[in-house]
Amino acid sequence: MNKKETAEIKKNFSDKSGFFIMERVLTGFIDAEKNLRYHHVNSCLTMPVEEHDVYDETLKKVLNTNVGKSFVEYEFPNEAYEEGKPQEMLYTLLRSELKDEVLCENFLNHIANNIAYTGPFAVITAYCTYTIRKKDKNDEYAEGEDEIYNYLLTAICPVNTGSDGFVFDSFNNEIMKKMNTELIISKAPSDGFLYPVFSNRSSDINHVMYYAKSASKPNISVIEDVLGCTFVMSAENEKANFQSILKNVVGDDLDYMVIKTVNEKIQEVVEENKEETDKTVIDDLRLKDILTDIGVPQERVEMVAPVFEKVCGNTPLTASNLVENKTVLAAPGITVNIKPSAADKVRTSVVDGRRCLLIDIDDPTIEINGLPVTLS
Predict the structure, then answer these.
(1) Residue 89, Cβ neighbours under 10 Å: how many?
(2) What is the mean pLDDT of residues 26-50?
(3) Residues of 143-168 as b/e, b for ≥16 C-beta within 10 angstroms?
(4) Secondary structure (3-state) at 189
(5) Which phi and psi angles does 211 have, rounded to 5°?
(6) How far is 125 from 194, CA to CA, in rounded Å?
(7) How do the domains of the chain map onto residue ranges?
(8) Are strands 365-368 and 371-374 parallel, antiparallel or unpaired?
(9) Does the pLDDT value for residue 116 go beyond 80?
């Protein structure tokens, strides 16, 4: 799923859209010892509005449009199709529309037995349908050509007793320490997944989307042990690997202009391919082209392939994960944040024998700690 496809499902995750129905919700509570203490399936059609709204709010967070970072697509390996394996289990649960109690209980126990999680948590899984409107060659909706996308959306939510504080006791007319013993289910999932994926405006049962609240700290046990997929590098790891490649290839020639220009080139690649369904990647060949274009010496460019293979193997890097939204220059005691629009105003130079960072200022009036100062 790309950002556009994810945005379509998220936008229509509401009864008000006219094309979406959340039919049933499976809820389960798993204690700190990984025991399934409770599970139940509710019909959303007869559910009180207030309760329905909480499920909507919680589950919608899983549909994160930060695709490739917080919301990552995974392909099921061949063995996942075997009976009792994750893909087969999810497909069977999808077909049951959450109407089979045994399948629901087995699903929750599968999560409980395979997830690495500290403390108790709740699992919320909704069975949803979305009517996909198809258009004809004239870009008009074609009658009778609609397709139904059935999917399961799961949110894994931490449970805690909330924060203690002071409350006013009106009975005793005093301020006192609050002692909260109720287990509160967070409306902010730590993990989640969507199955099957919505790809090319159709259903793809061979892939699943995994959500992590913290893109830099995905729960690998959900990906590998619950979903049965092979973990790929997180956005943070991809960026770190790319920086390692750039440092080893460019070496002493790595300076402000090289870093700035490489970032701009990758941003161009992302923009040029933003409408593509498949994620845009940077492999060794594309990186060689970028470095050649910006004038890195050819002997350095030829080092890209072996260095790339050593760091990443045969796995290309997600282009959007490598783009920096700002340039950060750091030295002992000094940090300068530079927005892309001002990147050309910064340069490095040697002045009177000292290495200096120079910032071109068109307006002589600047602010220091919020106070206006005029530079003469």
Answers:
(1) 19
(2) 93
(3) eeeeeebebbbbbbbbbeeeeeeeee
(4) coil
(5) -110, 135
(6) 10
(7) 3-231, 236-322, 327-374
(8) antiparallel
(9) yes
Q: Which two tokens stand for residue 203?
A: 């259903």
- In this structure, the number of other CB atoms found within 10 A of the CB of residue 232 comes to 17
Structural tokens at position 283: 């492999």
In angstroms, the CA 78 to CA 228 distance is 10
| Main-chain phi, psi angles of 336, to 5 degrees | -120, 125
Cα separation, 34 vs 118, in Å, equals: 10
To the question of pTM greater than 0.90 for the whole model, the response is: no
CA 146, 152, 158, 162 torsion-angle sign: positive
Q: Which residue has the tokens 């080893």?
A: 248
Distance between CA atoms of residues 238 and 282, nearest Å: 11
Residue 251: both structure tokens together? 């070496």
Q: At 137, list the tokens.
A: 């060659």
User: Looking at the predicted structure, is the pLDDT value of residue 164 above 70?
Assistant: no
Contact between 280 and 319 (Cβ < 8 Å): yes
Q: Are 104 and 26 in contact (CB under 8 A)?
A: yes
E strand map for the chain:
20-30, 36-43, 71-75, 121-132, 147-160, 166-169, 174-177, 184-185, 191-195, 197-199, 202-204, 207-212, 281-282, 317-318, 327-331, 334-338, 346-351, 354-359, 365-368, 371-374
The full 3-state SS of 122-143, as one line of letters, equals: EEEEEEEEEEECCECCCCCECC
Closest CA to 308 of 285, 281, 342: 285
Distances (CA, A) of 278 to 66, 67, 178, 342, 360: 15, 11, 52, 32, 40
